[in-house]
Amino acid sequence: MKLSLIFALYLLHHHLFPFTLASEAYPSAYGDAAGEALVVRREEYDGGRILDITHRYTEDMPRWDSSDGLGQFLWLLQSMKNGSLFYSSEFKLPAHCGTHVDSPGHVFQHYFEAGFDVDTLDLEVLNGVALLVDVPRDKNITAEVMKSLNIPKGVRRVLFRTLNTDRKLMKKREFDTSYVGFTEDGAQWLVENTDIKLVGVDYLSVAAYDDLIPSHLVFLKNREIILVEALKLDNIKPGIYSLHCLPLRLLGAEGSPTRCILIK
User: Fold this and answer.
1) How far apart are the first and last CA of the chain?
2) Which segments of 34-152 are extended strands (E)?
């Protein structure tokens, strides 16, 4: 009886004063003086322990080989302002925009036809201990650069922060072909000399523009490495984190948007 009374009072309070307290489910929502909800979008959670390294989708974010950006991607199909009982939206996105993953079918016809899509990617590889490293800012990720990073054997997930982050390329509408990425020899060095199975980068492609297909072929030909592209690595210190990356289960898709976080 006592528990029922407490629960009833709890429900009454949240019905009458829905925005006066921060909610456990919505810790970003606070009440203003008029009792209205104020939404605060954050990049860190739990006192900075959880770091969101996913880019927020906007119409102005870059799209591959486009000067116009992503453009409209979200449409409101039903609105309470128009008499509906609820709001309902639909969205349309390229599989390789924003923070996303590549599957082997992205650049290999036989893998695509065999069904090696994003639904076949290994969640054990996509989730676990990861190393964030800073790449020398004056060059692409060549074999020489890879060797200079001295990544220890046994490290399986590495996020490469480059000049792309410094230049804030993911915040610019126009696609920039001068972004930093892996050259073919850099990709080959990684495959042959490290235990890395997840490669994360900070622009729309893991491969430098002039080595676009060759680098992808090196990484994906054996179906042992997962590529995570367009990570948001601003203001995050190099070091070891717990990475959690979950692509959508899109049957038949060679790429997918993904939500990625780091936990200290």
Assistant:
1) 43
2) 37-39, 44-45, 50-52, 74-78, 88-91, 100-102, 127-134
Structure token digits, residue 109: 């016809």
The single-letter code of the amino acid at 208 is A
Contacts of 88 (CB under 8 A, 6+ apart): 76, 77, 78
Task: Convert the pLDDT of each residue in 65-76 to its tens digit.
Answer: 999 999 999 999
Cβ–Cβ < 8 Å for 255, 96: yes
Distance CA 111, CA 223 (A): 9
Cβ-contact 243, 260 below 8 angstroms? yes
pLDDT at 37: 75
According to the model, what pLDDT value does residue 16 have? 41
Q: Are 155 and 196 in contact (CB under 8 A)?
A: yes
The identity of residue 241, as a single letter, is Y
Cα–Cα distance measured from residue 133 to residue 118, given in angstroms and rounded to the nearest whole number: 26
CB 130 within 8 A of CB 231: no
Q: Do 125 and 156 contact (CB within 8 A), yes or no?
A: yes
One-letter identity of residue 187: A
Q: Would you give the DSSP letter of residue 47?
A: T
SS3 6: helix
What are the structure tokens assigned to 38, written together? 């104020």
Lookup: tokens for 129:
């201990």
Q: Count how many Cα atoms sit within 13 Å of the Cα of residue 231 in the half-sphere of its side chain.
A: 31
